[in-house]
Amino acid sequence: MPKHPFKLRELISALKGYGIISLAKRGKGSERILLKPKEPGSKKGPQYPIKDHGEGTEIPIPVVNAVLRRFGINEIEFWGKEIKSKEEESSKKS
Hints:
Blueprint: E1 6-7, H1 8-16, E2 21-23, E3 31-35, E4 47-51, E5 58-59, H2 61-71, H3 75-93
Antiparallel strand pairs: 1-5, 2-3, 3-4
């Protein structure tokens, strides 16, 4: 299965496993800030602004890859987990 764009809610859900949180009211205009806190409860650490026009906003692959680089997440590992989880969902539906 190839890489695919994410809905905003899917991306936030996938990144939670890596310790990244979403700050909805911190962005400029229609942006949301993704943050990887240095310590639990902290608001300091690497940040990435991302467009937010609702939970269904589609996030393109290059933006997802930029987020992964910013937070030091291995792209191959991330996309591999996503492919496996999508396959498991489709097998449950069958």
